[in-house]
């Protein structure tokens, strides 16, 4: 998968899936720029990733001005931007009975508006390049499944796919592809706070018998960013260990 020396901008990259995506691109010799609202954490993440070219920028995806400034600085440093991964997202839990307007708007602001600002800020540079790539971190939750407490989160992740399909049409004439990866249960730092029982339940729901790793999402992203994926656009790639396959828990019982 050829992404050698491509300049890749990844939002929400200080930890979790975003950091895993960054590591994978670095391992494939891309020039990687981590962007996150948490400046201290994103700079530490850049330090943690060994080898290759890794830079860190502080930026708020809810602000178009912020994202334009970051993307401009990256383009000036590296001579352009080849790949943009809109990965930043939040998932606070709240039932519909408990959810406030502020809860709803905050999740949509980060997850859905953040996708828009990240992509819009990058458009001049992607169009100027030879084969631009837009990558979205969606989820199985929303587009395929539901989960109590995540109606706002699910709405944003499904909304990202509607955005993707139209963006793919608009950018096709510029040789820019737009695709999304839909992660299932992935082991990230945030799972540690939920306890071993919760992690065990999550693992049980995956036919392959294990949680995914952030780098598993990274491998899918690298493929979609590569020259080999130049004829793929407006598509989704589910990376969930088969989690969405069983029609019920009974379908998994007794399987070895």
Q: Strand arrangement, largest sheet?
A: 3-2-1-4-5-6-7
Radius of gyration: 18 Å
The number of strands is 7
Query: What is the 3D shape?
Result: globular
How far apart the termini lie comes to: 33 Å
Which segments are poorly predicted (pLDDT under 50) over 5 or more consecutive residues?
A: none
Helix content: 40-55%
- Major sheet: 7 strands, parallel
Mean pLDDT: 95
Q: What proportion strand?
A: 5-15%
Alpha plus pi helix count: 7
**CATH architecture tag:** 3-Layer(aba) Sandwich
CATH superfamily membership, which one? NAD(P)-binding Rossmann-like Domain
What is the string of SSEs from the N terminus onward?
A: EHEHEHEHEHEHHE
Domain unit count: 1
CATH topology: Rossmann fold
What would your notes on this structure say?
The protein has a single domain, classed as NAD(P)-binding Rossmann-like Domain (Rossmann fold). It is built from seven helices and seven strands, in the order E-H-E-H-E-H-E-H-E-H-E-H-H-E. The protein has helices at 16-27, 39-48, 64-78, 101-128, 151-171, 196-204, 214-225; strands at residues 7-11, 31-36, 53-58, 83-86, 133-137, 177-183, 236-239. The relative contact order is 0.15.
């Amino acid at each position: 998968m050829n992404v050698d020396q491509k300049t890749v901008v990844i939002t929400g990259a200080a930890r979790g899936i975003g950091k895993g995506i960054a590591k994978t691109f670095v391992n494939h010799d891309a020039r990687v720029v981590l962007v996150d609202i948490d400046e201290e954490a994103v700079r530490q993440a850049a330090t943690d990733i060994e080898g290759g070219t890794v830079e860190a920028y502080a930026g708020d995806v809810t602000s178009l001005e912020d994202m334009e400034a970051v993307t401009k600085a990256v383009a000036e440093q590296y001579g352009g931007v080849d790949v943009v991964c809109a990965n930043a997202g939040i998932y606070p839990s709240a039932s519909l009975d408990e959810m406030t307007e502020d809860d709803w708007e905050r999740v949509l602001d980060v997850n859905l508006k953040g996708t828009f600002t990240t992509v819009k800020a990058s458009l001049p540079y992607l169009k100027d390049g030879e084969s631009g790539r837009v990558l979205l971190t969606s989820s199985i939750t929303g587009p395929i499944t539901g989960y109590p407490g995540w109606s706002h989160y699910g709405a944003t992740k499904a909304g990202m796919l509607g955005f993707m399909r139209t963006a793919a049409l608009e950018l096709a004439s510029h040789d820019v592809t737009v695709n999304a990866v839909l992660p299932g249960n992935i082991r990230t730092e945030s799972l540690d706070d939920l306890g071993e029982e919760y992690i065990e339940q999550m693992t049980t729901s995956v036919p392959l018998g294990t949680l995914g790793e952030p780098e598993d999402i990274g491998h899918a992203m690298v493929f979609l960013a590569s020259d080999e994926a130049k004829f793929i656009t407006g598509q989704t790639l589910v990376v969930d260990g088969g989690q969405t396959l069983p029609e019920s828990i009974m379908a998994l019982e007794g399987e070895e």
